[in-house]
């Protein structure tokens, strides 16, 4: 399974944070955060959700950002400082499941929990149980928000769909994600329903970028995060995912800046990224 170096994780967290920020802000506005005092950003990474929660919540609300990765928490704390919300947030290095169990045991639960790109089989062998643990840490009336940036639904290579589909399969194999079944990463809604939350909602928040220069975060996201990830997947799992030698070579050309057939130099190049917000409330 794919392992990431500290540098790769940092690049991913910062570049991805910038790219998803507008959609996260929009998602926060759909949550009813007024009057909610204790908020949790579960698996905060570089703190994109942490800071957005602090901005969207009442000024006297407090937001806890939990992550097991100390380097990520440093990025999150620096971001909170830079965005002027450091006095309203706290970061804690811990296993999320321990924090949730402690909240459930002590009765000091959360009025809202945000989890973005965290609940998936790469992080939790039993994601449905992880969602149940998130729900177990909610106070009565508390809201759970599961956000997915929709990496595996995105169109990164418009006009090259066969190569893109095989790259997606190669990437999922590279991360050890099953092709289907109860732990599949597309089951956020299934897990929220299984946890018995009231009023489950699914919101699609699509991003379409064209021309690419319209969104200055898009090119760095593609060149620093997406292309390296997909090229690694092609190398490691491309043949198993059914890519021919010609398709492997074309994938390299399409995703190599400066190459003759570089995808971003195609006049019609556009990026489609359907992001997903799944919410529910505890009775
Ligand atoms: C894909 S990143 C998403 C970060 C951030 N929520 C975002 O949307 O940009 C997943 C994060 O979850 C953290 N994480 C994964 N499993 C965890 C666990 N069991 N306890 C705490 N943090 C965890 C990772 O360290 C990583 O920072």
H/E order of the elements? HEHEHEHEHEHHEHHE
Query: What fraction strand?
Result: 15-25%
Count of discrete structural domains: 1
**Main beta sheet: strand number and arrangement?**
7 strands, mixed
Overall mean pLDDT stands at 96
Polypeptide structure, described:
This protein is α/β, with parallel strands linked by helices. The protein has a single domain (6-281), classed as 3-Layer(aba) Sandwich (Rossmann fold). Helices cover 42% and strands 20% of the residues. The protein contains nine helices and seven strands. It has a seven-stranded mixed β-sheet with strand order 3-2-1-4-5-7-6, with helices on both faces. Helix 1 runs parallel beside helix 2 (48-56), helix 1 crosses helix 8 (218-237) and helix 5 crosses helix 7. The longest helix has 25 residues, at 6-30. The protein is globular, with a radius of gyration of 19 Å. The termini are far apart. Residues 16-17, 43-45, 48-49, 66-69, 72, 95-97, 116-118, 123 line the site of S-adenosylmethionine (SAM). S-adenosylmethionine binds next to helix 1, helix 2, strand 2 and helix 4.
Helix and strand arrangement:
Blueprint: H1 6-30, E1 38-42, H2 48-56, E2 62-67, H3 70-82, E3 89-93, H4 96-106, E4 110-116, H5 127-136, E5 138-148, H6 161-174, H7 188-194, E6 198-209, H8 218-237, H9 245-254, E7 271-281
Parallel strand pairs: 1-2, 1-4, 2-3, 4-5
Antiparallel strand pairs: 5-7, 6-7
Helix pairs in contact: 1-2, 1-8, 4-5, 5-7, 6-8
Bound molecules: S-adenosylmethionine.
Short description:
By secondary structure, the protein is α/β, with parallel strands linked by helices.
